[in-house]
């Protein structure tokens, strides 16, 4: 095949060809030809030559070469060439080198294929489950320089004829067997069932695929004959797993030995009515609590009567006094809910705060982790309007502790103090201004204090 660059170079010549030149492009991979080339050509599809036409052409060639070729030999050569006229002429040339008289036996000897007699012997022994006979016959053919691949291919074609004779006995044109072989073929066909024929074809196809991958080709062919004679079933990799699953499913019992029973007694019907009423009331309160905008409409077609409600097991007889299903079942209201004790995990309002001394606040800061303690260093705390007002000059604390972060810091401060508090953070810059130290050292200490860094000043 030409490369795309070579095709492009050829395109120029095809567009402006000389008057005395005609290009004929022949290929078995027409899909690889560029569209710019194929669009400028007339395309002709060559098909396989029919066996009858090929045999007729071979007889004409043999007559021109003064070679005696029988009709059976010509048809056998046509079948071996598989519709290729060039291969048919090559086989004819090989047979002509063996002598001037070419018969079907000469063709089989030159082509190295099994005789039809051997194929019928194989198929009959397989039907009779004669494994030893098949192995012995294969060994004889192998010693006679017969190719194992050709034997398997010919046997596959033979079983194809058996399959067609079994399924379409009236259409003899589909068969590759010769007319004088049809009675024997019909006799062998009656010895097989269709499933056995398909099984043999599958085994032969698997053997043909594996012959090119192994060195012991004769052993692989013998294994194929053993499988066909013993009637071994064709299994995929999934088949053993499928059988195991079927065995497990067969042992399992159905969940219900009998179909579910509908309530039949008055007691069961009363229990079903009260259960449905309780469920609908609970669902109604749940929708109200969730703040649903629109009430959900119940599907009345689901169960219109009590008999439509399925029960997995028969319900027991109700006790004489059943407060759970009684008519005066207490439904919670707002008044009754207010009288009940509150849950343990409800948020409690913080108690009234007492004044936090400077020593208490300093001790609380020391109990915090290092990072939090560094942010609260130098800060003061006092109780104002029920909140713990923290005054600090730390810019990190003032800028970052906002929103949800305030709740987290409140938890840290509450754990450090030992009681729940709510905090507010105030900047120390709003406090009355003190006399500032304008010296370089004073400005450095002021910046460090604003950033929460403690510097010990030694005289």
Protein architecture, described:
- With 459 residues, the chain is mainly alpha-helical.
- 51% of the residues lie in helices and 4% in strands.
- It has 20 helices and five strands.
- The strands form two sheets. The chain has a three-stranded mixed β-sheet. The chain has a two-stranded parallel ribbon with strand order 1-2.
- A hairpin with a 2-residue loop joins strand 3 and strand 4 (387-392).
- The longest helix is centred in the middle third of the chain and has 25 residues, at 266-290.
- The chain starts with a helix and ends in a 9-residue tail after the last helix.
- The relative contact order is 0.04.
- The model is unreliable at 292-309, 321-334 and 340-350 (pLDDT under 50).
Keywords:
elongated; single chain; 3-stranded mixed beta sheet; two-stranded parallel ribbon; 459 residues; mainly alpha
């Amino acid at each position: 095949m030409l490369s795309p660059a070579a095709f492009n170079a050829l395109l120029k010549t095809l567009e402006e060809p000389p008057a005395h030149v005609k290009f004929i492009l022949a290929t078995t991979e027409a899909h690889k030809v560029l569209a710019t080339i194929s669009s400028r050509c007339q395309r002709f599809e060559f098909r396989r030559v029919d066996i009858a036409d090929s045999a007729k052409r071979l007889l004409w060639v043999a007559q021109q070469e003064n070679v005696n070729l029988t009709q059976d030999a010509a048809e056998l050569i046509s079948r071996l060439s598989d519709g290729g006229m060039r291969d048919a002429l090559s086989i004819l040339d090989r047979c002509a080198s063996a002598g001037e008289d070419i018969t079907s036996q000469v063709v089989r000897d030159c082509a190295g294929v099994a005789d039809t007699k051997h194929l019928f012997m194989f198929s009959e022994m397989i039907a009779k489950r004669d494994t030893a006979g098949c192995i012995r016959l294969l060994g004889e053919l192998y010693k006679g320089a017969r190719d194992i691949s050709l034997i398997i291919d010919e046997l596959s074609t033979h079983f194809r004829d058996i399959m067609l004779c079994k399924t379409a006995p009236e259409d003899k044109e589909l068969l590759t067997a010769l007319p004088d072989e049809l009675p024997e073929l019909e006799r062998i066909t009656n010895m097989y069932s269709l499933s056995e024929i398909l099984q043999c074809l599958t085994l032969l196809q698997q053997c043909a695929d594996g012959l090119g991958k192994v060195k012991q080709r004769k052993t692989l062919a013998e294994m194929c004959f053993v499988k066909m004679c013993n009637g071994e079933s064709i299994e995929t990799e999934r088949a053993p797993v499928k059988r195991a699953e079927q065995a497990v499913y067969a042992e399992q019992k159905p969940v219900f030995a009998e179909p579910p029973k509908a309530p039949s007694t008055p007691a069961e019907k009363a229990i079903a009515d009260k259960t449905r009423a309780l469920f609908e009331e609970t669902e109604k309160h749940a929708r109200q609590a969730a703040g649903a905008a629109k009430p959900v409409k119940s599907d009345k077609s689901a169960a219109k009567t009590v008999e439509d409600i399925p029960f997995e097991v028969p319900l027991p007889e109700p006790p004489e006094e059943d407060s759970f299903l009684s008519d005066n079942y207490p439904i919670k209201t707002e008044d009754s809910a207010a009288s009940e004790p509150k849950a343990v995990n409800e948020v409690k309002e913080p108690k009234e705060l007492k004044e936090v001394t400077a020593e208490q606040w300093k001790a609380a800061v020391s109990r915090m982790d290092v990072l939090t303690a560094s942010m609260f260093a130098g800060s003061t705390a006092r109780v104002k309007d029920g909140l713990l007002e923290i005054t600090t000059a730390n810019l990190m604390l003032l800028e970052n502790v906002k929103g949800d972060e305030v709740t987290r810091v409140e938890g840290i401060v509450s754990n450090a103090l030992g009681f729940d508090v709510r905090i507010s953070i105030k900047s120390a810059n709003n406090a009355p201004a003190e006399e500032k130290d304008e010296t370089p050292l004073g400005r450095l200490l002021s910046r460090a204090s604003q950033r929460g860094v403690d510097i010990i000043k030694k005289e």
